[in-house]
Amino acid sequence: MLSAVSKALCVSKTSAKPAVQWSIVRCLSSLANDASISLLEPFKLHRLDDGPSRDTTLTRDDALRYYRQMQTIRRMETAAGSLYKSKEIRGFCHLYSGQEACCVGIQNALTSDDSIITAYRAHGWAYMRGIPVHGILAELTGRKTGCAQGKGGSMHMYGKNFYGGNGIVGAQVPLGGGIALAHKYRQDNSVCISLYGDGAANQGQIFETFNMAKLWDLPAIFVCENNKYGMGTSVERASASLDYYTRGDYIPGIWVDGMDVVAVRDATKFAKEYCLSGKGPLVMEVETYRYHGHSMSDPGTSYRTREEVQEMRQPRDPISIFML
Q1: Are residues 62 and 76 in contact, defined by beta-carbon separation less than 8 angstroms?
Q2: What single-letter DSSP state applies at residue 87?
Q3: 270: Cβ contacts below 8 Å, ≥ 6 apart
Q4: Which parts of the chain sit beneath pLDDT 50?
Q5: How much is the pLDDT for 30?
Q6: Kind of pairing between the strands at 34-38 and 233-234
Q7: Which of 83, 160, 220, 250 has its C-alpha lying 20 to 30 A from 189's C-alpha?
Q8: How many CB atoms lie within 10 A of CB 312?
Q9: Residue 180 CA from chain centroid, whole number
Q10: Are 176 and 117 contacting, i.e. CB atoms less than 8 angstroms apart?
Q11: Is 172 in contact with 138 (CB distance < 8 Å)?
Q12: Looking at residue 313, what is its pLDDT?
């Protein structure tokens, strides 16, 4: 735990910059191996009596690993964007910049035996599931050394217990329900994370999967990565209810700040423990923001202003606030 000096410094730092209370870890990295921190944004709960605590700990090694992983994904996506503009990458290319805390936080609460299935914004997830940067960029450029031998491209990358990368909106969620059923059948003490965006959140097949998952109490965590826009349509124009974590109705849910990697990690730990206790599935909403357009063919400025992007990026960038 923190020494007395570290605690005193922590009080001083957090009183000066309350918006980034947990980021004190970095400036104390030479003083302590771990720190007690308090998350800024509270978790929102649906049909849950208790949720994750806002008071948590972060070790120096964990902090350095999270930072390195988020930076690697950001730089990889920047390289992918440049390759697309130079026409080395053809076809679809959906960048993950701005959402790094989601995949880094979730993966660091899981083991390699847990399963992940996601939509088409999959580069960051592929990296976090063990595919090297070379394998991802080679796949994007159609090389045989890519993780799918150059045949899958941006939307179809696979690895151990990583089931893609799926191009059909919302279609990965029923598949994720099946993977969760396999985990329960094998009794392997693992969960399946099924990710979808706010643009897919109104798909009927998602609610059908919710129903079956609850009927069978599957070890399934359904994660809505709410990045505010489904293609070019804002969540306010697309959804009558913006509380995506309550969309499971009879399934408990939790909302988490998707720009805070530690909050995402702790929420996922809680969700995994909940599911493996035999209580059935859980819905989790991670509220985040994408910096680029829906895909590289979308400039992302016809339905939102550049000022909006900067207003989100400057004070809330998941990497920048982690560095402070």
Answers
A1: no
A2: T
A3: 51, 52, 254
A4: 1-26, 28
A5: 59
A6: unpaired
A7: 250
A8: 18
A9: 19
A10: yes
A11: no
A12: 86
